[in-house]
Amino acid sequence: MWGLVPLFWPLLKPSGAIEILAHRMVWSLVAVGAALLVLRRWAWIGELLRQPRRLALIGLAAAVITVNWGVYIWSVNSGHVVEASLGYFINPLVTIAMGVLLLKERLRPVQWAAVGVGAAAVVVLAVGAGRPPWISLTLALTFATYGLVKKKVNLGGLESLAAETAMQFLPALGYLVWLGTQGEATFASHGAGHGALLTATGVVTAAPLVCFGAAAIRVPLSTLGLLQYLAPVFQFGLGILYFHEAMPAERWAGFSLVWLALTLLTWDALRTARRGRVALAAAGRRVEPLPTPSLNPPGVRVGEE
């Protein structure tokens, strides 16, 4: 679903990126709230309201994802789908770099090599385009930061999105009201179909998250990790085949380096997971069974009374 979202945002024109973003915030809260109502998952709200630190982190997550959503919508509707896809390709590399810089995590040699190749890819793309790939870097940095903050918050996907959009709701609604007073709102002025599409931004945001949560329960973690690359692959394909964006040689070179870095990361992750399973199985075989307790009282032989 995430990989096909670039097909949706152009349908919302002539709405501008900020208006679309505001509608996405408002209707996402409505959609997620409805899902939580059906699932009867409300108990977490009272607990969250009693924890100012978690509320502050959710506020930070809401601010970061606002930037991410806004840049992504603008990039798709401005003809930068391929560059947007690059942001989600390099997101795992940025996440690893943030783990080293902020959490003092130690990397394995292959991970260091992947990060180095990813950095080289950014340089190649910047030189080829004559500017840094700021759309890609912004999307990658904001989404990696968002993931880091959500890890600290430790709240379920639906619950977290509900809390974040609740913080976004009033500013977004205020902007839409102001836009209406200026005569620039498109919700009602371009027909019922356009209004319905703007309303659907909530479902477009919430539905993939619900499906991802369901898959996380049923699909092995290693498979789930590989599936995260499907979204940027679809976005990249749409950018070239559907939106017909240019792919000069230097861009292909930069993307090839990114894909090489991701191949290294994937290979290292699968190898590490396999070693972990082998070690666990070996440890299980080394555990000796406990002796079976005797059914006879001490000092009494079988057949004696």
From TrEMBL:
Span of domain EamA: 2-125
Keyword Transmembrane helix: yes
GO CC annotations on file: plasma membrane
The UniProt record lists the keyword Transmembrane: yes
Annotated keywords: Cell membrane, Membrane, Transmembrane, Transmembrane helix, Transport
Topology relative to the membrane: Multi-pass membrane protein
Residue spans crossing the bilayer: 27-43, 55-74, 86-103, 110-127, 192-217, 224-243, 249-267
Subcellular location: Cell membrane
Pfam families: EamA
InterPro entries reported for this sequence: EamA_dom, EmrE-like, RarD
Highest taxon listed in the record's lineage: Bacteria
Location (main, coarse): membrane
PANTHER family per record: ACYL-MALONYL CONDENSING ENZYME-RELATED, SOLUTE CARRIER FAMILY 35 MEMBER G2-RELATED
Similarity comment: Belongs to the EamA transporter family.
Name the UniProt record assigns to this protein: EamA family transporter RarD
Lineage: Bacteria, Bacillati, Actinomycetota, Actinomycetes, Kitasatosporales
Gene of this entry: rarD
